[in-house]
Amino acid sequence: MKTVLSTKTLDGETLAFAQTLNLDVQCIDFIETTALPFNLDSTGLQTFDAIAFTSANAVKFFFENELASSMINGKAVFALRGKTSEELLARGIKANTDASSANELADEIVSGRVIKSVLHICGNLRLPVLENKLKVAGVDYNNLVVYQTKVLANKKVNQPYEAILFFSPSGVEGFMGSNNFEAETICCCVGQTTANALKEKKSTANLIISNEPSPKAMLTAVADYFNNN
Prior knowledge:
By secondary structure, the chain is α/β, with parallel strands linked by helices. It has helices at residues 12-20, 56-62, 68-72, 83-89, 102-111, 129-136, 169-176, 192-201, 215-228, and strands spanning 2-6, 23-27, 31-35, 50-53, 76-79, 117-123, 140-151, 163-166, 186-189, 206-209. It contains 9 helices and 10 strands. The strands form 2 sheets. A 5-stranded parallel β-sheet has the order 2-1-8-9-10. It has a 5-stranded mixed β-sheet with strand order 3-7-6-4-5. The longest helix is centred in the C-terminal third of the chain and has 14 residues, at 215-228.
């Protein structure tokens, strides 16, 4: 079996799936997420005609508010595919888009020329990609921060791995804070933004990007790489 480090905790079903791919996965969290208080009553958020989610955590923490379900009724919902869309589907909500990145998500919102205002449900370390692109297109953008991410940069791994899974730029920052990896290590990133963050830390990293932004897709990409090389 190939040894793989996941830079966040994966569920049992995903770990069992990894075993079928001949991958032995160890999980170490290099970021920590916690809910932040937010008020849906007094923020004037009902005026937005679309809501965008770019992380599964944003979905989870947003719907901890008892008013979230009623607020989302009648509004267009945009979300990244993979875990983010899956979290919405688990709550009976199907997103209007199938984008794999914030950049693609902005393109899809703008292309319909119907959406005039967007509320972005996000964390404190959100990247400005969605905001910048929507504003350039003349779409009114605002954000609601529902969780915070703390980078855990002091955790040190105690063994080498043949592959590492990176799920976010903050996860890259956490891992690289106290660790490094060999040139031959396969680094699988959830998307181009995370890959760019890793390249900034280590330009020689051997990178692959999964076709879908989900842990299973990333594991499949790693297995395919090893099978073909």
